[in-house]
């Protein structure tokens, strides 16, 4: 008979095996919406790589949950946009190409989000160009104080 502890370990292992490293990259001009998207990424345990780029392990279900949360943020932004510009057309799309409908002016992407799962092979072949700086501890308070004065 298998002990319950081993079953718990196996369940965690199966869930971890189903998770894929996931990138979330976005380009959002609105400060409020951008902050909400970054908070959502943090809530899902993702690590910030750059200002508008997060990475972490997510299962397909978690990616779908995150997608729905980000789409809600996008819909909220769309409602505010429609209030401010009642005559403007807004067309959501799940592709990076502009809508098929002819634009009255020109289609401009205003709120872009990409959630990209990566397989192990992709991660192993990734190229990185990081530059780390070892900041002495005695310099940190001076830099923070200087930043507050600006």
Structural notes for this entry:
This protein is α+β, with helices and mostly antiparallel strands. The protein has a domain at 20-119: Alpha-Beta Plaits (2-Layer Sandwich), CATH 3.30.70.240. Helices cover 45% and strands 18% of the residues. The chain has five helices and four strands; from the N terminus they run αβαββαβαα. It has helices at 4-18, 31-43, 60-84, 120-124, 140-149, and strands at 20-28, 47-50, 53-58, 111-118. The chain has a four-stranded antiparallel β-sheet with strand order 2-3-1-4. A hairpin with a 2-residue loop joins strand 2 and strand 3. Helix 2 packs antiparallel against helix 3. The radius of gyration is 21 Å and the shape is extended. The termini are far apart. Mean pLDDT is 83; it is low at 10-15.
Question: Total strand count, please?
Answer: 4
**Coarse shape:** extended
CATH topology value of the domain at 20-119:
Alpha-Beta Plaits
Name the structural class: alpha+beta
Overall pLDDT metric: 83
Helix content: 40-55%
CATH class of the domain at 20-119: Alpha Beta
Sheet with the most strands, sense and barrel status: 4 strands, antiparallel
Total helical elements: 5
Along the chain, the helix and strand elements come as: HEHEEHEHH
The fraction of residues assigned to DSSP E strands is: 15-25%
Q: Specify the CATH architecture of the domain at 20-119.
A: 2-Layer Sandwich
- Rg from C-alpha positions? 21 Å
Major beta sheet, strand line-up? 2-3-1-4
């Amino acid at each position: 008979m298998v002990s319950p502890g081993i079953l718990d370990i196996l369940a965690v292992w199966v869930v971890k095996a189903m998770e894929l490293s996931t990138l979330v990259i976005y380009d959002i001009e609105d400060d409020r919406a951008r902050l909400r998207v970054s908070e959502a990424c943090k809530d899902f345990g993702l690590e910030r790589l750059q200002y508008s780029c997060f990475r972490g392990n997510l299962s397909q279900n978690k990616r779908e949950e995150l997608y729905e949360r980000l789409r809600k943020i996008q819909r909220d932004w769309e409602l505010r946009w429609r209030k401010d510009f009642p005559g403007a057309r807004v067309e959501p799309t799940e592709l990076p190409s502009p809508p098929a409908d002819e634009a009255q002016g020109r289609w401009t992407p205003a709120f872009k989000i990409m959630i990209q799962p990566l397989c192990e092979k992709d991660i192993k072949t990734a190229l990185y160009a990081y530059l780390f700086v070892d900041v002495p501890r005695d310099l940190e308070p001076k830099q923070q104080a200087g930043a507050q004065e600006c």
